[in-house]
Amino acid sequence: MKFDNPQLIKYIKGCTSPYHTVDTSLQLLLDAGFTELSLEEPWNLTSGNYVVNVFGTTLFAFHIGEDYRHSLRIASAHTDFPAIRVKPNPITDVKGYTKLNVEMYGGLIQNTWLDRPLGAAGTVVLKGENSYDVDSVLFDTKRPIAIIPNLAIHMNRNVNDGVALNRQKEMLPIIMMKPDGDTTKSEEEVWNQFLADEINCDSSEILSYEITLYPVTEGALVGTDFDFISSPRLDNLTSCFGVLAGIVEAKKNKVDGIRCAILFDNEEVGSRTKQGGAGMLLPNLLERVYRSLGLSRDDMDLDVARGFMISSDVAHGLHPNYPEKNDITNFPVLNGGVTLKQACSQSYAGDAKAIAIVKGLCEEANVAYQIYVNRSDIPGGSTVGSISSAMLPMRTMDIGLPLLAMHSAVETMGARDQEQLNHLMQHFLGDE
């Protein structure tokens, strides 16, 4: 597979929920020759390339070379993104308008979600043979089914001065007009019947769901010289795409050592879940790999101590309308290359040696790089690098691509930056 901009845009189009990010990424790796393993079955490993679907929304892929102990390298990203999630029993009616009761996932910029056609995607869980044997079905409308209309300026003359939106009242999307006199179905039945029709099952089979609303807008090249990519979910699917490029390169080059790629879920809400970076998932998976190869916990600890991890998540690019929001000497710009993210608070993982290592990797791979540090009076965000390296004590560096409008429904990146990230990940995971 080519890891270029058209493929990035196609990849993002398929990744409409964390479940779909994992499914799309899994299929990409299976097509590249990886072997799928199950968490629920024993692993009998040798040199080769493997991938594991972890609870539907996290992906763990790894390459094992002929010399297992040569080196240990790990690259991570996250599958989730700020979005709108559908609550249980979501149907509510107001004067004939049927609305969805929803909640906000992560720190989204709320007003960017107004007046945008929204699709719905995720998983629907159906009855099985018994209480523990249930069946999860991927669900994606692949069309807009909802919209959150703005209030007309005539009814809110101060709208251009900025409006605070109440998440429970003003962020509920409309999905249909209720037919006059229709009292045959309960509100719960209306939604379950819609889901049943979409996945071709009987509504009585539906037990639960996790459903994300997403902008149906597709990514596009923008600018007189096509300098930019505008797309939903650039945070953090750009990093997922780069990490996948790296682990595929490891297979292609048959490198020695153990090379891992992990795409965590739940970064946008703190990572403290069974499938997130603030848990024991990565240490447990890595120990399982070592045990299956006949290696000891001491072997793993030694390799972790001398190994290296790159955590990839997007960075705040300098905004030309708000240049004062960035640090005065450390500010990344779009198309300036990969960003090394630094913070003395350790909200981004890294130390002096980690910074030097990544700079060296960039120079070896002929990858442009730049530095991001928060303004001292504007605390920035955090990401999974410091969290996961605390759970697996391994030297780690946070990097990413610079974005504008991070956490907007549609974000902007440099069209030349993805290639730089791909090259770095291919060198890091795919070269010895």
Summary tags:
432 residues, alpha/beta, 20 strands
Describe the structure.
- The protein is α/β, with parallel strands linked by helices.
- It is built from nine helices and 20 strands.
- The strands form three sheets. Strands 1-2-3-13-4-14-18-16-17 form a nine-stranded mixed beta sheet, sandwiched between helices.
- β19 and β20 form a beta hairpin.
- α4 runs parallel beside α9.
- The longest helix is centred in the middle third of the chain and has 20 residues.
- The chain is globular, with a radius of gyration of 22 Å.
Helix and strand arrangement:
Blueprint: H1 5-14, H2 18-31, E1 35-37, E2 48-54, E3 58-64, E4 72-78, E5 83-94, E6 97-105, E7 118-126, E8 135-140, E9 174-177, H3 187-199, E10 206-215, E11 220-222, E12 228-231, H4 234-253, E13 258-264, H5 281-292, H6 297-306, E14 308-312, E15 315-316, E16 338-342, H7 352-364, E17 369-373, H8 384-391, E18 396-400, E19 402-404, E20 411-414, H9 417-430
Helix pairs in contact: 4-9
